[in-house]
Amino acid sequence: MGTRFTLDWGTTYEVDVLDLGLACCGVEVMAALHGRGDDQDRPADLGVRPVSGAGAPERAHVLVVSGTVTDVMLPAVLATYERMPEPRYVLSVGACSNTGGPYWDSYSVTKGVDQVLPVHVAVPGCPPRPEALLEGLVALHRMVTGEVAA
Ligand code: SF4
């Protein structure tokens, strides 16, 4: 039986999470954030509320950057972050977002979104499993609630 996750912020508050899925990692993030049907481990049941649509950045306090960040996309990533209200947190998901991943030596790829945004938690993998994203959210929650120093 696999590990089951409990996000304690589900009993204390809810957080709106905006997924900026830029490549294949974004598919894994979608699977993790939206779960499967009535899966009790679905983050939405535990206080993590995915948001989308035109006004999503103004509501979200957590930005998930998943996938390859190309230099041409970087202004849009920054603009999304700037529209988010304080406090705002960034979760970088996958090797591409963390370091450029398999495309680290490409002329057109940003070598880690942490070069331009304050990344609070980086989830490794190519792609990370959905469980890894959940672990990243748990780590972020611990950091925000002061259990772990930033
Ligand atoms: S880390 Fe791997 S799976 Fe994720 S976006 Fe890059 S190439 Fe795709």
Automatic annotation (TrEMBL):
First and last residue of the signal peptide: none
SUPFAM superfamilies (alphabetical): HydA/Nqo6-like
GO cellular component: respiratory chain complex I
Pfam (any one): Oxidored_q6
Key words of the record: 4Fe-4S, Cell membrane, Iron, Iron-sulfur, Membrane, Metal-binding, NAD, Quinone, Translocase, Transport
GO annotation, biological process: aerobic respiration; electron transport coupled proton transport
InterPro entries, sorted: NADH_UbQ_OxRdtase-like_20kDa
Isomerase listed as a keyword: no
Entry keyword annotation includes tRNA processing: no
PANTHER family: NADH DEHYDROGENASE, NADH-QUINONE OXIDOREDUCTASE SUBUNIT B 2
Name of the protein: NADH-quinone oxidoreductase subunit B
Organism expressing this protein natively: Streptoalloteichus hindustanus
